[in-house]
Structures are given as structure tokens and as C-alpha cells.
Design a protein that fits this description.
CATH superfamily of the largest domain: Ribonuclease Z/Hydroxyacylglutathione hydrolase-like
Distance between the termini: 31 Å
CATH architecture of the largest domain: 4-Layer Sandwich
Radius of gyration: 30 Å
Strand content: 15-25%
CATH class of the largest domain: Alpha Beta
Family: Belongs to the metallo-beta-lactamase superfamily. RNA-metabolizing metallo-beta-lactamase-like family. INTS9 subfamily.
Pfam families: Beta-Casp (PF10996), IntS9_C (PF21382), Lactamase_B_6 (PF16661)
CATH topology of the largest domain: Metallo-beta-lactamase, Chain A
Largest sheet: 7 strands, mixed
Protein name: Integrator complex subunit 9
Subcellular location: Cytoplasm; Nucleus
Organism: Hirondellea gigas
């Protein structure tokens, strides 16, 4: 088994495993931290931004002019924001058989993987992950397209060494990409197959993938990938806290051969319960001082719990008249979906549904007018409804686009106002940098519900994996607290560690394969008693290997199927009666040895396939025959003929056998 790590951030993982002739991607997260190097997209042209000085390095040519601007001794790119998607240099995305998506935040890079890459596989996820992920993608696209930039800047990437930090520390900026569009979202989601919890789904007949509840968000899951001999567990973002999703289920994940660990708590020095209390307390304190509260956040997930806790806190201090605004292009759909997916919620919220109550408090509050959802600042009725002091939940948590940018400019000069950062993904200092100097008070309350290191260590001991794969950063304490030895993972035997864009060879060898026996062959066997309680029989059969399944068949049946089955003129199949010419004989020679690609290419040309094209790749080589609509994948221990035409398959098979030695 091979493991390819395609990301540089353990909490936004994207990886690929190659196992039992299948290639499976585990999550396709979009790393959004590169947006911090760009200037915010303004809904309304701002004089302060226009007055920012252009910046040029001393030794640079004038071709950089207009690309960089300076604000408070920090340099930003004046261009549409760019994102880091999984790199495709390690594996060809066209060879992917399946993509397993764990939660709604792990779907954001999907269009970069499936569109215009030759992808022909399937994408597996739960229904809430699909619907809520679609909302996140739609919001992201609309925010960026709402404020187009006059130019796209890219020349700065060629002279990183001349730029000041932190821009000079940017990793692989040449691989950063601009956001996709709505049409590309639709195309990417057309590959999706919806699965339920604990529903095994076959992938190319070789392995099954099963989604197991992870407790992180609505519809989130860990993945169990199993063959008849081996069991692989992918532990994605998981939570043991009692929040709105269904609880973590780790029983089916026990005793795997390989355990892949990712997405532990992003801020291990914080406690999510304490941070939630601090968030509510800071918001109430600001409101009682006649200040406004801005909460940059995603439109799904954590926002449901934050609204519920904040409303309860406001009621306890007799501030129930304070308006709460939820601004997002998908605000209405988000609130609606959270109530629709009741079977994916915690048991306490499911019981509310059975009692004909709303599972979330915000449903009742929205009908009562206390929570007011709007698509944007310019939505009909917002100006008439808007009053201060208030609480505003809006995007984007990066503060680089969305309605949050406008509120930062609107409330920046009042020290009574606060902006509360709850998303652990973004550093609040980087997010606020282009808005400096700032009188508005920032408060950092990262609410990260992923399992912490103590819980992860206990979970590892419960699962008892033979081999563990984890990021190298999980084996040492944070740099700021090297004495905290409790903030790291230890395994016995030591885990295999992966780093940025690395490849691991995992010791998972296949020793046997599962094969089925045709009923005709089983009926022809004559078992003989060897000893008490044990009988045996010799078998002479033909081994059929198709779609990663093995079948033992009677040799006569195989011969007859190949020689006597034919097509009639009207397209119906008929079989001629067996005659002397169709009597099968056992093979007189058996092939073995290493395939000579040169001899095969020569044989294909002599057989009329003169357009056969040979391409080298990491695992071997690929031969493409466009005239026959066929492709050959040649590896060290396997050769696959991929075509929908039976005659072409048999023709190429015969040529392959001629290129091998025989006994």
C-alpha cells in the first residue's frame, strides 16, 4: 500500500491511498489561509484602501508595479484572492477510482480534482455533507464574484526572495488558484453518490468503503475501507463533545491493519467549552456597553451552537430585544437544512422532532423575528430592519471577502464595538492586518470541537491498530509550549509519519485473494475423506479475473462461452449446439515471466493498432489505443486491459500472452 499526502495542513487534509489495484482519495480540502496575503474585496469602494501606498522591492523591475500595496508595514497582493488546492504532481487525478469526503468543509476543492482532469471515478459522501458543502461552495463563489478586481496579479510569485515576510514565506504560490464558478460546482457534484452511515459501498469490486459517524458536524464521518483480508480506517475530523450532530461511533473502527490519523484539535491549548462561554460573555458585555458584535464565520456547523448559546445568555441578562442578523447568500437554506436533517442530529434533538418540536432554537427565533436572515447588505428589507446595537453573523472568517469586510470598515473606529474570531483556521492578527489602525476591539475565541490529544491517545489505545499513519507535527508539543508533553501522540510500535507532500510505503502485503466458485464447478467436485472431519477434492478450473473479482469456472463453460456465443443480426445473443470443434481441452502451456513492453508495442502495431501510444508514469506505463477505445495499465505485478469491447479485450489479451514465456 502507498500513501500520498497532498496537503501541508493536517487540519485541512487531502491524501490518496493506493491499495489492492484501487486508487482512493481521502478528502479534498481547500486551504484558505493563502487568502491572508491578499487585500480584502470591498463591497463599496473605500478611500482608505485607495490611499494605500504601492510597494516595490529595491532590486525589482517595474513589471511588479501595481501588484503590491503596503498597510501598517505589511505588504499585500492587490488581486483576487487565491486558494491552495491539493497538488496533482504526485498522482494523476484521472486514475482515481473514488473520492471519500468526510464533512462539508472537506468538499471545497472538489472541482479542482474532478473537472478537466480526466476523472472517471465516483465521489462518496453523506447527504448532509453534499447539501451543506454545496452551500459553502456557493457562498464562497458568490462572495468573490460579487467584487471583481480589475487585474489579476501573478508576477510577484517570481521574486519571493525580494519580498518582506510573511509574504516571502508563502508555500508554493505558483500552485495557488482562483476560485471556481457555479457551473464548475454543478459539474463536480454530478459525480457524487450519496451513502448512509454504516452502508458498505463497493469500489471497483476490490474493496468496500463504509461511512461511520464522527460526531464533528451534521453528516460528518470517518471511513472504513475493507477488503476480505485487510481493514483500513481513516480518522478525519471527529468530536466526542455533546453538540448538535450524532455522537462519535468508534466501535466499527477497532483493530484495523492501518489507521490514518488527521484533523486533531487545531488549537490544543484551548478548551471549546471555555471558549464558547468566553464568546457569549464577550458579546453580552459589548452589547451592554452599547457596542456592536461582529462574528465572521461559516454559514453552517458551529454557527448553530453559537446562536443557541448566545440567545440563552442574552435571555439570562434581560437583553432579549437585541437583534441578531445572519447575513449570507445561503442563510435561509442553511437554517432550513439544519432542521430537515433531523435523523443526522444528536439523540436529544431527534427526540424534539418526535415531540413535534423544532430541533434547534434558531428555527423558533427566526419565526419570531429575533434572528433575521438576509442574503446580503443590499437585500430587500435589510436597511429597514437594521438597528444597533446588534450581533451580526456573516462571512467570511478570513475577512478578505463577504459582508464582514463592510462591517469591519463601518465599525472599525468605535472602541465599543468588538469582532470575535471563533474559527481556529485563521490567525486573527493576519485577518486584521489590512484594517489597521483599528479602534474596534478584537477578541480571539477559537472554538474547535475536534478531539484533543488526550482523547486521541485514548482512542488509539482503544482501536489497537497494527500500523498508524499520522502527521509528524502530532508527535511533538507546540513550539510555544515545549514542556507540554501531554500535547503529543505516542504509539507502540512507532507510527509512520508523513510530512508536506510526502509518500509513504505502508507494510500491507496481500498474501491471499478471495475467489468464488461457479455452481457447475462445485457440483462436479468429488470430495474424498482425508481424515475424520476433513474432506478434500482436486480442482481443474479456469480462473476468471474481471472487475477485481476472481471466479473459478469449469473449463468447458469458458471455452464454450468464448467460441459459441455470437451476435445475431437483430442484436440478440444465441448459442450454437456444442459440436466436436467446440470440445475444450486443457491448456497445453501456461504463461509466466516479465512482460516486454517493446515486444507488446511491436505486436500491437503488427495487429493493426498502429496508433498505440506509450506513456511512462510513476507506477509503470500506460498504453493508449484510441482507434480501439482501449487502454492498458502495466504495473510491476499486474496488467489491466480497460475497454468496453469484448473483441478488443481478447485480441489484446492474446497479444499479451504471446509476449510472455510459457511452460
Amino acid at each position: 500500500m502507498k500513501f500520498y499526502n497532498l496537503s501541508s495542513e493536517p487540519n485541512r487534509p487531502s491524501s490518496i491511498i493506493s491499495f489492492k489495484d484501487t486508487t482512493i482519495m481521502l478528502d479534498c480540502c481547500l486551504e484558505q489561509t493563502p487568502t491572508q496575503h491578499f487585500l480584502p474585496l470591498q463591497l463599496v469602494p473605500n478611500q482608505r484602501t485607495n490611499n494605500m501606498n504601492h510597494w516595490l522591492p529595491r532590486d525589482a523591475d517595474t513589471h511588479l508595479e501595481g501588484e503590491l500595496r503596503e498597510c501598517s508595514n505589511r505588504v499585500f497582493v492587490d488581486s483576487p484572492p487565491e486558494f491552495k488546492c491539493p497538488v496533482g504532481q504526485l498522482v494523476d487525478f484521472s486514475e482515481l477510482d473514488a473520492i471519500l469526503v468526510s464533512n462539508s468543509l472537506s468538499i471545497l476543492a472538489l472541482p479542482y480534482i474532478t473537472n478537466q482532469t480526466g476523472f472517471r471515478g465516483t465521489v462518496l459522501m453523506t447527504e448532509p455533507t453534499l447539501q451543506l458543502g454545496r452551500l459553502l461552495m456557493k457562498e464562497l463563489v458568490e462572495y468573490v464574484e460579487r467584487c471583481p478586481k480589475a487585474r489579476v496579479c501573478s508576477k510577484w510569485k517570481q521574486c519571493l526572495r525580494l519580498l518582506p515576510p510573511p509574504l516571502s514565506f508563502a508555500k508554493l504560490p505558483q500552485a495557488w488558484k482562483q476560485i471556481y464558478n457555479s457551473k464548475q460546482i454543478t459539474e463536480a457534484l454530478s459525480y457524487v453518490t450519496i451513502v448512509a452511515y454504516n452502508e458498505p459501498v463497493s469500489i471497483c469490486g476490490a474493496v468496500t468503503a463504509t461511512a461511520v459517524c464522527s460526531g464533528y458536524s451534521v453528516g460528518s464521518c470517518n471511513w472504513l475501507i475493507a477488503s476480505h483480508q485487510h481493514k483500513i480506517v481513516y480518522l478525519s475530523a471527529s468530536s466526542s463533545l455533546t453538540t448538535h450532530p450524532r455522537p462519535l461511533n468508534y466501535q466499527p473502527l477497532k483493530q484495523p491493519d492501518v489507521l490514518i490519523v488527521s484533523s486533531l484539535i487545531h488549537r490544543p491549548l484551548t478548551n471549546p467549552d471555555h471558549m464558547m462561554n468566553e464568546f457569549c460573555g464577550a458579546a453580552v458585555h459589548a452589547l451592554r456597553n452599547n457596542g456592536n458584535v461582529l462574528v465572521p464565520c461559516y454559514p453552517t456547523g458551529l454557527i448553530y451552537d453559537m446562536m443557541e448559546c448566545l440567545v440563552s445568555q442574552l435571555d439570562s441578562v434581560n437583553s432579549s430585544m437585541v437583534p441578531i442578523y445572519f447575513l449570507s447568500p445561503v442563510a435561509d437554506q442553511s437554517l432550513a437544512y439544519s432542521n430537515i436533517f433531523s435523523e443526522w442530529l444528536s439523540y436529544a434533538k431527534q427526540n424534539k422532532v418526535f415531540q413535534q418540536e423544532d430541533p434547534f432554537v434558531h428555527a423558533h427565533l427566526a419565526r419570531a423575528g429575533r434572528i433575521k436572515p438576509f442574503k446580503s447588505l443590499h437585500a430587500d428589507g435589510f436597511s429597514a430592519e437594521f438597528r444597533q446595537p446588534c450581533v451580526v453573523f456573516c462571512g467570511h472568517p478570513s475577512l478578505r471577502f463577504g459582508d464582514a469586510v463592510h462591517f469591519m470598515e463601518l465599525w472599525a473606529n468605535n472602541p465599543l464595538n468588538v469582532v470575535i474570531f471563533t474559527e481556529a483556521e485563521f490567525e486573527f492578527g493576519d485577518a486584521l492586518a489590512p484594517f489597521q489602525p483599528l479602534a474596534m476591539r478584537p477578541i480571539y475565541c477559537p472554538i474547535d470541537t475536534c478531539i484533543n490529544y488526550t482523547q486521541a491517545q485514548k482512542l488509539l489505545s482503544e482501536l489497537k491498530a497494527t500500523t498508524v499513519l499520522m502527521p509528524a507535527t502530532y508527535t511533538k508539543p507546540p513550539a510555544l509550549t515545549p514542556h507540554r508533553t501531554d500535547i503529543k501522540l505516542e504509539t507502540s510500535p512507532p507510527a509512520l509519519l508523513y510530512r508536506d507532500h510526502s509518500i509513504l510505503h505502508v507494510p500491507l502485503e496481500r498474501t491471499v485473494e478471495l475467489a468464488s466458485m461457479s455452481p457447475e464447478l462445485a457440483a462436479s467436485l468429488t470430495p474424498v475423506a482425508v481424515r475424520a472431519g476433513l474432506t478434500a477434492a482436486t480442482i481443474t478450473a479456469s480462473l476468471k479475473h474481471q472487475d477485481n473479482t476472481f471466479t473459478l469456472q469449469v473449463v468447458d463453460d469458458v471455452s464454450e462461452n468464448r467460441k459459441d456465443e455470437k451476435e445475431t443480426k437483430n442484436g440478440n445473443k444465441s448459442k450454437s449446439k456444442p459440436g466436436p470443434s467446440s470440445v475444450s481441452v486443457y491448456p497445453s502451456r501456461y504463461p509466466y515471466g516479465t512482460l516486454s513492453v517493446e515486444d507488446l508495442m511491436q505486436g500491437l502495431s503488427q495487429a493493426g493498432m498502429v496508433d498505440a501510444r506509450l506513456e511512462e508514469d510513476a507506477g509503470g506505463c500506460i498504453i493508449t489505443v484510441e482507434s480501439e477505445d482501449a487502454m492498458l495499465q502495466i504495473r510491476d505485478n499486474s496488467t489491466h486491459i480497460i475497454t468496453s469491447r469484448l473483441e478488443t479485450r481478447e485480441k489484446i489479451r492474446d497479444l499479451l500472452l504471446k509476449c510472455l514465456s510459457h511452460i
